[in-house]
Amino acid sequence: xxxxxxxxxxxxxxxxxxxxxxxxxxxxxxxxxxxxxxxxxxxxxxxxxxxxxxxxxxxxxxxxxxxxxxxxxxxxxxxxxxxxxxxxxxxxxxxxxxxxxxxxxxxxxxxxxxxxxxxxxxxxxxxxxxxxxxxxxxxxxxxxxxxxxxxxxxxxxxxxxxxxxxxxxxxxxxxxxxxxxxxxxxxxxxxxxxxxxxxxxxxxxxxxxxxxxxxxxxxxxxxxxxxxxxxxxxxxxxxxxxxxxxxxxxxxxxxxxxxxxxxxxxxxxxxxxxxxxxxxxxxxxxxxxxxxxxxxxxxxxxxxxxxxxxxxxxxxxxxxxxxxxxxxxxxxxxxxxxxxxxxxxxxxxxxxxxxxxxxxxxxxxxxxxxxxxxxxxxxxxxxxxxxxxxxxxxxxxxxxxxxxxxxxxxxxxxxxxxxxxxxxxxxxxxxxxxxxxxxxxxxxxx
Length: 446
Hints:
Helix content: 40-55%
Number of strands: 14
Structural class: alpha/beta
Strand content: 5-15%
Radius of gyration: 24 Å
Shape: elongated
Distance between the termini: 66 Å
């Protein structure tokens, strides 16, 4: 099938590559000529496991192409995905200007029937706005062309997006058009062979499903962080609590790991957007407001530990930091806990020596050159001259470190672990002082 994707960002590029991999002919449209040129050279703008070979192989075989020519894209695709960004506005609501701009562009160039798919995460009612934009643009141009607008939200996890796209848990289609449903069933048939994963519903329910899914997962994380904070005050161990409740199949083990807060491009933005949408219909979403508030507080947790340990005096200290991305297997630092921590440390006069397997360039892009930030080539290199070690991201490379080396290199022999990677009893055997989230009192080395 002939498919066009507007927006070569995280969602658009993964979706385009996977559709091309199963044989569809995909044209990707973006306004950024530099991004298009780089993609044609095999330079992928994001780090995502498995994405680079998928994009390059399908580009070489001609199944996916990249362009800034919107007219070419509209002419090519019978099915057109809108996968542009919906950044938070000043009040936290989703900004739809890019979605609306693409809708107007499609209407300007379309000559035949198009199925327009909202793949971007958008508030309830966005499909109606897209229909209005396309209809009004066609009317101004005195064009009579039919079209369908479908809500088809993505459910990708950063770090596992290619696999999630190739083997989706569910495919949500928000449409009442039998023609659009038939065409999209054909489009997604390669991903729907084991059992029927397609769920068809009305457009508004599909739009809300995306927000509800992310907000439920964010709620689980904030709830567990709330329990971790209680565990500390009550002398309990949150890891034991996690195992105890996770064994209940109604709860399960996913998304109940306590830590130093969630980040990324989805959870923070989507929780805020749904809170604002609720306000717009006269409802106060108290649970979601609490989820956001708990997460905001949790991102300061490591800094609080450090300040308490050093009795508020961080001036002149050097902090070794492992992990900059908001989660493993990505270079994404949007809303990352590491950013909150570093900025607070700098305010107190401390310097940071940091390492991350993938997010070093992104850190450099965000913060530039500054005397109180050194990006080191290895995790071991961060330790030299450091007063303490802080862990913000649970990369596999951090799970089995050389504790003897940490004891030798880190002058104060203390670890602040924002992801609970280690057993406190093990750390104490190495003579290290250890702070972890919700694990009772901090453990002091022997």
